[in-house]
């Protein structure tokens, strides 16, 4: 049975049982505690937490998941993908344990002719939580499972919670016995490879306290409403139903292995277990990588981007270890597009962008791979020379951080050289870095959400800011350092929740509004506005005057000047985005944006810098759209309607049932957006692009000023030119030619100067030769030339001095320093060479003193070093080398 068919049957089974079908959320759903969506329940969290009422009582989904914790298992176990699809059914206060077990059982064991998976019921095992007698009995009653095939497991395996106080409950897992040839008898508690977990049912019934029942602590209460959350691994079911040995050989993963076989000429499953793991890693990671890029992740050095980078680089390295040196990622990407495309059509649509991202990442890595290998070799040699045996943690970290070497690559290279790696040191540095990354992801620091949950129970905030700037409202709650307080007075900084507000909360790239909250005798200055659970507007504000108490009537007031700028900034962003796509093509899709009054920036998928022509064309198209005074229209519709309109949905954003489409100039610019916009494009005012730069590979950033700020920026530039023209005493338009002429004259003057200096140096040759000292019958001229004299001049001078030593056996050694660098030249006369003096052989005698090396022929040797302070010592060493 094809994998796509397994998903389809799951959905049909639950839809027929009255569940609402909910599409998969993006892998990068905005959740501060998660790097990637890792389970089907993530998008339903607000309903489970009671932060929002569920729009349906039962639902089903097939959710894209990425589990980074499973990276090291990939290819080694039979059952762990980094990307997999979790099918689930959810009940919000509807059916509970009996319903969940029944639904799962009928699908798993129902005949294939009737739309089920047709697993042999005699090979199914179940586990339940230690004291969950209810589930234990239901498995016997509903499924007819004999007691020997129901096993009890402790909290570590079979209790679920979110890691914090809140909902929790026992789990019950469903296993399939693959048969005695795959391991020991005794059920899942004995062998998790022979007995394969395919489905986990979570019975949400408890309130977990500070301590988790996972570790044996009793729950502190019971949930008023019991919920069901389940997850079935589509890939695991596929591998069983397709009669293959593991999740990497299923119809959606195996084609990448075939591609790798074709490229490398090696065969998967031909008796080389190390190669086989590599094949599986390649296939798994190719799929995860492409799915992540599809959802808008680009390779980078932090958080999500780093995980993606690690996956892609591990592919490149594994392929190299299979003997392939050509670029491979674009070809693997095409295979993934073909296998996953039928279910995720955006992969096909976005393929040019996806391909550009992987191509670029592979090129970058192949570039640093060489330098990183060099760094590693130098470090390894030095450690061994010094008698050490361990690569320090900071080296491993540097290789990782600067050269993009995943730690397992470093470990492998080290062991080839007989070295270990200070993994603890590396991990400590990584932990520090991770902590920084996490802090960056966690934007709103709303740690304990209960206080907001209580406020949300009073109703969501009504946003009136699209229609008016000032709104009458009532203070619903005041929060101070996470705790609800009855009032706040002058000087206090608190969070204010009101029933209605005209103040825009930061979202969709637009910063929050500046403004005031005023009431009878009180005035608060609004510092920031954030949304909690997408429904509650939380205003951070400083009490300027009076006392604010819960329940009082107030007016929220948006600063009108600010809002004019904010609207220009946000509409300007849409205009630039549309211009970008017009000039570069539709694959230049925005991946992030930020706008505030007067300024905007936009990150978009693009490999390589924009040419100056494209840049000015984008600016031109944007300003034309402004001049054409296009109408701006807002349409409310559902997701399907928005797609029909061709509206651009952005990565990582979550959209409600009803979505808002903002269009500028009809179909020219249509985006899903909740921001505040101008009414006609002319109100945006001038747009000036001020910069374009790289933000990680495959991603560029364009920055622009809009409105009055654009005008001021241009005025400043004009003043600069006028200033320069004044200094140079030429008309404006002659400034470039004049500067060019000046630079040219400077260059000529520098050349002259150099010639003069060289001449002077050479004229001193005779004098130097006369001053040669006699060391054991050899005439030695060894000295430090003036700083900054380059290697070539040293050489010319050395030859000149040598000529003047005539027929004497002689050695000339000249040094000079340039900053931290030392250059040197050693020359011997022919009589000297007859007497056994070789320039190249003399070098090692003195070069360590200047931290350098070099070499050459008997008549002439040249080199450099890094310690100018050692020149005198080097001369002494050379003198010593001539003395027997
Ligand atoms: P395991 O112990 O095998 O890693 P788990 O306990 O982590 O599994 P759950 O968190 O209960 O799994 O996830 C629900 C279901 O999702 C599992 O029953 C399994 O079918 C599937 N699943 C979990 N992790 C993976 C993975 N890395 N690759 C493929 N499927 C997975
Ligand atoms: Mg797991």
TrEMBL record:
PROSITE patterns linked to this entry: AA_TRNA_LIGASE_II_ALA
Enzyme nomenclature, EC number: 6.1.1.7
Signal peptide per UniProt: none
CDD domains xrefs: AlaRS_core
Keywords: Aminoacyl-tRNA synthetase, ATP-binding, Cytoplasm, Ligase, Metal-binding, Nucleotide-binding, Protein biosynthesis, RNA-binding, tRNA-binding, Zinc
Domain of life: Bacteria
Residue positions binding Zn(2+): 570, 574, 673, 677
Pfam families to which the protein is assigned, alphabetical: DHHA1, tRNA-synt_2c, tRNA_SAD
Subcellular location(s) per record: Cytoplasm
Domains (record comment): Consists of three domains; the N-terminal catalytic domain, the editing domain and the C-terminal C-Ala domain. The editing domain removes incorrectly charged amino acids, while the C-Ala domain, along with tRNA(Ala), serves as a bridge to cooperatively bring together the editing and aminoacylation centers thus stimulating deacylation of misacylated tRNAs.
Role, per record: Catalyzes the attachment of alanine to tRNA(Ala) in a two-step reaction: alanine is first activated by ATP to form Ala-AMP and then transferred to the acceptor end of tRNA(Ala). Also edits incorrectly charged Ser-tRNA(Ala) and Gly-tRNA(Ala) via its editing domain.
Entry protein name: Alanine--tRNA ligase
Protein's organism: Actinokineospora guangxiensis
Lineage: Bacteria, Bacillati, Actinomycetota, Actinomycetes, Pseudonocardiales
Gene (name only): alaS
